Amino acid sequence: MASVALHSLASLETLPPDDPASLVIGRDTAVKRVAHHAERAAQVGCTVLLTGETGTGKEVWARLLHRVGARREQPFIPVNCAALTPTLAESQLFGHERGAFTGAAGASLGVFRAGDKGIVFLDEVGDMPLELQPKLLRVLQEGEVTPVGSSHPVKVDVQIIAATNRRLEQEVAEGRFREDLYYRLNLVELRMPPLRDRTADIPLFIEYFSQKYAKRYGQPVWRPDEDALRAFCEYQWPGNIRQLSFVLEQSYVLQCEPSLPGKGAARAESRDLPYTDLGRLRQVAVEQALRTAGGHKGRAAKLLGIHPNTMTRLLSQIGADSAASDEVA
Predict the structure, then answer these.
(1) Which range marks the domain in which residue 249 is found?
(2) Is the CB of residue 134 less than 8 Å from the CB of residue 176?
(3) Which of the residues 246, 260, 282, 324 could staple to 292 if both were Cys, CB 3.0 to 4.6 A apart?
């Protein structure tokens, strides 16, 4: 993928509507300040910590840093630290030797050796088990890993970009995150502003997502009238950009006007619905929310503007409960 200078992305108006950089650059001053620091971090290839609420686009920023940095031709490996299997996490990250444990029929490189010369993106790093944190610290300090079942460290050259929606200072104070690891990860912090503080960018996001989903679902681009646009700009968006994306995609899936959670339709006029079965409509909405929320019931409930208990009941009714997680983070 071609390199793109971050400073040249000062406005979404200069970008093609399908450019992923459209999701991170806007008119808001705070975002431009983030872009300035991100450009420098990409140039030097240092460790970066992306912080901010869920749905503010941290992984999009991480991928953009990879795209514009010196390692853009090398691997970008995302790791969801919250989903690491407790019994196999060390092997997943650092690799293992053949026979290191029951079932280890062959050797495994692990994430860091597989990502050598590239970037490892540690999403939800605040959820990394405490016992693994010293090993991650060693990667940062010494540039080496020791595979499970081996006594010989192996050198690796990776840039680490980490992200979290937790307040790591508080996690450190409460003993759930190592202080020395926090300072190593926090060499450059890029704090993602919530969407409610970026109201000037909401019309740009509406345009971006509307064009994206209109193309995907073969429908006309939604152009909000003045009242609808005002309602979207005044809404607080607890799920941030991810929630806005969901609201707009849901409207294309259901072929109806976008509506805000708990607010009713943004416009009275509706498109013709392809389904007449209200139960089917409900199922589509719930399943789409779950996909957007990564299977987390609490997040999906927030996107739909309903109580988590209501989400649990809906999942039970449509038989999708087994595919969902109770995590609410």
Answers:
(1) 197-323
(2) no
(3) 246
